[in-house]
Amino acid sequence: MNWDDIRFFSAVVEHENISHAGKALGVSPQTVARKITALEHKLATTLFIRHPRGYRPNADAMSLIDEVKHAEQLLNTLQNKFMNKSQRFMGTVRIAAPEMIAIEVLLPALKPFLERYPELNIELITGISTIGIAKGDADIALRLVRPEQGALTIKKVATMSSGLYAHLDHDFNSEHSRLIGWDTTIDLPAVHWLKNITGREANIRLNSLAAQRAAIAAGLGAGILPCFLAEGLVRLPQQIVMKETIWLLTHASNVSTPRIRLVYDEISMIMKKYSAKFDPIVQ
């Protein structure tokens, strides 16, 4: 039996008439009769005594109706729990974001939001690997590359500028100063920018932006950093414009899930408030 079987069977038991049952279900009497006959074939028994004025449930039907009522109560309970959960914004939302945007922007801004929705849980996935929205690895993602495929809801939420930075006391020489950057196995725009600006690859190669910022702040050399991470450092003159668009995306089917839509809109608002710090360079 499936949910359709239960609906049609219950309606005929209640009304003892296929016309009245059909009206209650919004279908024709012929559809009701066909569904009941198919159900009887499935169960290899007769459930109703047909007579000119209607369908009278027999002993097998009365035995089955108790089980059906129990199943209906269980389904209604599950439905009510889910609806209450959605309306109260309960459950987990998984967010994928670049590590330093998560640390410097999202996490500090989320406290008031989470205080308003105490039954909402956040799972934050960081790193440089692309997390698959379509595969269900995350519900929402912030990305620096716009996806070209997939049934996604995509929104531009910021433009992020980067510059060549060094410690205040660092005497930068484009030919001899040490350069700090990404491991060359990592294909990111900053790798190409550094080489285009200086004509060289990094001397100190690291696989996280946090480590690069720490190395530059320690005076070990100069490197490419997003401007919002460069407080206390000096930006060195360079001609290449280094800007990236930050995209907020979710699967199109997630937009109708209240808790995911709520978090999606909140992240969009956070990024908008932070936009001036993301893009302070006037070229």
TrEMBL record:
It comes from the Bacteria. Keywords: Coiled coil, DNA-binding, Transcription, Transcription regulation. Residues 1-58 form the HTH lysR-type domain. Residues 61-88 form a coiled coil. One of its GO terms (molecular function) is DNA binding. The keyword Cell inner membrane does not apply. PROSITE patterns: HTH_LYSR. It holds the Pfam family HTH_1. Belongs to the LysR transcriptional regulatory family. This is LysR family transcriptional regulator. It comes from Acinetobacter rudis.
